[in-house]
Design goal:
Layout: E1 7-9, E2 13-17, H1 23-30, H2 46-58, E3 62-67, E4 73-81, E5 89-96, H3 105-120, E6 125-131, H4 135-143, E7 147-160, E8 166-177
Parallel strand pairs: 5-6
Antiparallel strand pairs: 1-2, 2-3, 3-4, 4-5, 6-8, 7-8
């Protein structure tokens, strides 16, 4: 996934490296409090979005998801190899602008990236974790052929309570293995 020319094309989307010019579209959703309901962090400013877009343009583990029809970035994917590399395990994650959710864009993008990875990067396993209270995320993973492997109690926290104690979350872990359920064919909802 290295190089400025990296591109995955689907019926409706382009999945590409970030560009500094993605700042306004990144700000459009990372400035919204509801985006952080199941994610770490807090709403960002336009300057922080600009810095983040520039930083991600240099990174290989974040990819912009862009509508082919308009050129608008509507979300992003996270994809990184876990350590140690000999285990050939990669982790996927995703955040999309709420205005573009429930149109199948996230599953279309994630499925295309997973198919690309199995064809080109040769992972043994691609995994994802999601908050148990986020059914949209775990249903997306199931839709693209991932299997729920386990449930983790109080595995992470993104927020503190009013006195500074962590608010722990429970998470599901999902994976897809090489040679299993590859090339899931998705029906694009129009």
């Amino acid at each position: 996934m290295e190089g400025e020319d990296f591109l995955i094309e689907t019926e409706r989307l382009l999945i590409r490296k970030f560009k500094p010019s993605d700042a306004a579209d990144l700000f459009a959703y990372l400035s919204l409090p509801e985006v952080y309901r199941f994610e770490p962090g807090k709403p960002i400013t336009l300057q922080e979005a600009s810095d983040l877009a520039t930083e991600r343009a240099e990174a290989d583990n974040f990819l912009a998801v862009v509508l082919k029809a308009s050129g608008k970035m509507i979300g992003h994917l996270y994809f990184e190899q876990r350590q140690p590399p000999e285990f050939r395990t990669w982790e996927i994650g995703y955040i999309f602008n709420p205005a573009y959710q429930r149109h199948g864009y996230a599953s279309e993008a994630a499925s295309a990236l997973v198919d690309y990875a199995f064809a080109n990067l040769r992972p043994h396993r691609i995994m994802a974790r999601c908050d148990q209270k986020n059914p949209a995320s775990w249903k997306l993973l199931e839709k693209i052929g991932f299997t729920r492997e386990g449930s983790f109690k109080q595995v992470a926290y993104f927020r503190m309570d009013e006195v500074g104690n962590p608010i722990w979350i429970d998470a599901f872990e999902y994976s897809r293995l090489e040679g299993k359920d590859e090339s899931i064919s998705l029906q694009v909802e129009g």
